[in-house]
Every structure is written in structure tokens, then in C-alpha cells.
Amino acid sequence: MISSALDILHSVFGYPSFRGQQQAVVEHLAEGGDALVLMPTGGGKSLCYQIPALLRQGTGIVVSPLIALMQDQVDALRAAGVAAAYLNSSLDAQAQREVERQLLAGELNLLYVAPERLLTGRFLGLLEQTEVALFAIDEAHCVSQWGHDFRPEYRELTVLHERFPQVPRIALTATADPRTREEIVERLALTEARQFVSSFDRPNIGYRVMLKHNPRTQLMQFLDGHRGEAGIVYALSRKKVDDTAAWLAEAGIEALPYHAGLDAATRAKNQQRFLREDGVVMVATVAFGMGIDKPDVRFVAHLDLPRSMEGYYQETGRGGRDGLPAEAWMIYGLADVVTMSQMIAQSESADERKRIERQKLESLLAYAEATRCRRELLLGAFGEDYHGPCGGCDNCVEPPKTWDATVPAQKALSAVYRSGQRFGAGHVIDILRGVDNERMGQLDHDKLSTFGIGADMDEKGWRSVFRQLLAAGLLATDAEGYGILRLTVASRDVLLGKQAVRLREDAKPVRSARRRRDS
Ligand code: ADP
Ligand code: ZN
């Protein structure tokens, strides 16, 4: 069995050896077992079902939501001499009949189908009249509501197990956080399946996160270290993408914009230039990147917080596909946290969805504010037990200085509490610093016991304290997104003096109070 799997790898695919867990997966499937395969993008998931489909009797049925990619995959397989076909809405009636005929005649090694097609009574009926080698469920995270690609049809795929209990099934995904994994297992009835979990580490990517104070200067300094190299700069809004791209172009950098608001022709043109020319910097919203496979992307910069750790991993993962060093760089500030909270609150999503989004934002904040190895946190978010120092993130290269901020943290939390947990950071900082403005007087906040107890630290210092308290879960913002601060369960121990608080040095009291907002 092993030798024939290897034979196919050599003779059909032309590769000298298996990669990572491929061989183990192939053998397990070929022997009739079920499998769940978690592998990062580019890890080589396709061979995990293609080779067993060739080893076993009958046709391998591949369920994939990516209709646009089916044709490419099938063309590549045919070029290698594999009898492959696909069935989706892009085929006309006659072409569909022909594929069905081939399936019934047992002429196909592999058949790619869209989930909605597979689930039709007609297609399931056809499958009952033919021999099925295996079912491969690609992009299996689509079954999960936790992720961003939820497809209701994926939930119905359990019908495969019910109607074809003897046929081995393999589910594959590059999305690996533990909650998604649990949901895949449960929703696709894969409790008996063996799990093959690859490492998601990208050792050639270096990670760096900085406090945002002057975004343009910071970006320019970063780009100065990458002159003439290809890279992606992500920003949250279309306007910011346009403005940044124009500004960079003016400064002599080969920068192009990309977002969903541009017309299709411009988008296609900019994407082509990024792919074909050397050293183009693509300034983009998250609309850019899906299916982009450019090996020599040397950096990925984030001017705003991404949506989640998952998103951050996917976006930064577009750097360094060629295995050479690449840099993932991000700047963020307190204002970003407030913006993100507002976006979540004001979205049309159901409450459950909003709760998920808030949790995702929180883990991203913890990552941004981390003082320990970033790789450890990033991989930890995917359930991977990695232990730093990695030597390739800012915190490992230069461990951040921390200071004992227990007393300022207590002052901050008290001020939030005493003012009734009804105000945003700006006003609470004014209370702490004893700013005597009209609003203070109207609210009688100048009479609070916390009024002016933080006058020894400037506004910038306090903003940093609040930002880090939020990131550490010692403060939370309101669900409606107004940026109103409230205490959390964890705040209590700090207020009672049971827990010390250490913060990054950037929050240390600065006595020469130079006012500068950290945007
Ligand atoms: P995924 O689906 O996990 O993103 P693919 O299956 O598309 O990854 O494979 C990614 C690339 O790696 C493809 O170009 C594929 O041909 C190549 N590849 C996969 N397995 C091997 C191997 N054992 N040896 C060499 N190249 C491989
Ligand atoms: Zn590290």
C-alpha cells in the first residue's frame, strides 16, 4: 500500500516525497478510515484525498464551495493524466449530462461538486448507483458559525454519512482554532475520525506590533526598510486605502489601491500589476488577498486592527510564501479599540454573532498588548502549544520593559466605578487628572474622591493605562459600542489589592507633560 501511494506521488504528481502528515493521512484514508485534516494554506491538503481516491476503487467525490477554483484543479489533474471532472452551475445542461454519464460508467477518478449540487436528490441517487471511493469535504470550516465563511448547506452534509456509511470521509481546512474544530467534528459526525493537525507556524515571518502615534511617519519608516520589495498594507476603510495609496505614490513608492469600491477593471489591473511587476505595494482592505498566491511578498503591514486572530493569521500569512524572511507589522491605539467595538455594535448581526465578534476582538487586543512571545499567542489561538522565545518577534528580540502599574490601575478602576460606569476613557481621564471644565461641574464629578488623584501622569500615559487595562480584560466597553467603560469580574481583585498589574513601559508617567494623543 505504502509503495503504491509513493508510486502515485512520483509517477502522477512528480514529487519525490510526501510532506508533513500527507503520507499518514493517505494511508489512513486508503485503508477506509475517516479523517479530519488541519493544515495551513499551501500545506498540501489536496494530495491527502487525491492519492487515496486513486488507490481505492470507484470515484472520489470532492465537495468544495470554491466553484471558481474547480476548473483549475480539474485542468491540473487532467494534465497529470487523472480522470477528473466537476459539476457546478457554470456547466450547461449537456456538459452536465456528460459528466453524469462518466460517473455512472465508472470512468472518473475524481469528481468535484458544489455542496448545493451534491445535496440534490438526483445527485445522491446517482451516487447510489455507482461506487464511491471516498468523500472529501474541503473548506470544512464552512460548517461553523464561529468562522466567517458559514454555509448552511454544509450542515446537511451529514447525509453522506447516513446514506453511505461504508465510504470513508475526509474533512479538510486551514482554519484551526479549537472551537471551529469542535464544531466540524460535531456537525459532520466525525467523532470517530482521526485528527491530523499540522503546525501552523510560519517560522520565516517576523511579527512586530507598535503603538500608533503618527501612522504616516511610522509607515514610511517601516517601508524605508523594505524599499523595492513587494508587500501589502491593510487598512480598514476604503477612504483610508485611497488616501494612503495616493500619499505613498506621491512619495515615490510604487503603491496601488485595492478595495471593493473600485470598479472591476481597476481592481483586476492593480492585482495583475501586483502579481507581475516587482516591488509593488498594494494598499488594500480585506477584500484583497483571497486566492492570491504571490511567493515573494516581503511584508504585510496593518494600519488598523484586523477582524480577528484568524484574519490576522490569514492576512500576515500572505507574506513569505517562498520561505524567505518576511515581516508582519502592525500599529494600533486606543481609538482602534473603540472603532472596532462600535463597528461590532452597529452591525446588523444577531446578538450571538456580536458576542462572538467581541470575544475575537478581545483576543486580538491581548495579542497586541502582549509582553511575551507573539508567536506563542498567535499559535495558541489555534490551540497549538508553542513555547517561545521564538527569536522572530519583537517581544523575543527585545523584551518589552514593564512597570508596576498597580496603583494607577486602582485609581483608574475607582474613577470608572465612582463616576457610575457611564463614561468613556476621555472623561474618566479628565476626572483623574482633575480637569476642571464645564461638564465636570454639571456632573458634580469635581466632587468625586477620585477627582485629580491622577494628576501626576499626563493624558498620554493615562490613555496607555486604559488601553492596556482593556486589553487585559480588567475593563470592558459597553455592548452598544459607545466606548463606555465598565468594570469586569477581574477588576475586583485589582481594586481589593489582591492582584498586581504590570504594564508596558509606554504607559509610565511622563512628568514633562507634552500633550499628544495616541490617535
Ligand atoms: P492547500 O490545499 O493545503 O493550500 P495544495 O494542496 O494546493 O495546498 O498544495 C500547495 C502546493 O504544494 C501545491 O503547489 C502542491 O503541488 C505542492 N505540494 C503538495 N504536496 C507536495 C509534496 N509532497 N511535494 C512537493 N510539493 C507538494
Ligand atoms: Zn517570539
Automatic annotation (TrEMBL):
Occurrences of domain Helicase ATP-binding (ranges): 26-194
Catalyzed reaction equations: Couples ATP hydrolysis with the unwinding of duplex DNA by translocating in the 3'-5' direction
Occurrences of domain Helicase C-terminal (ranges): 215-365
Transmembrane segments: none
SMART domains, sorted: DEXDc, HELICc, HRDC, RQC
Enzyme class of the recorded protein, top EC level: isomerase
Cofactors demanded by this protein: Zn(2+); Mg(2+)
Entry EC number(s): 5.6.2.4
Domain of life: Bacteria
GO molecular function, one term: hydrolase activity
Keywords assigned: ATP-binding, DNA damage, DNA recombination, DNA repair, DNA-binding, Helicase, Hydrolase, Isomerase, Metal-binding, Nucleotide-binding, Zinc
PANTHER family for the chain: ATP-DEPENDENT DNA HELICASE Q1, DNA HELICASE RECQ FAMILY MEMBER
Family: Belongs to the helicase family. RecQ subfamily.
Protein name: DNA helicase RecQ
Source species: Dyella agri
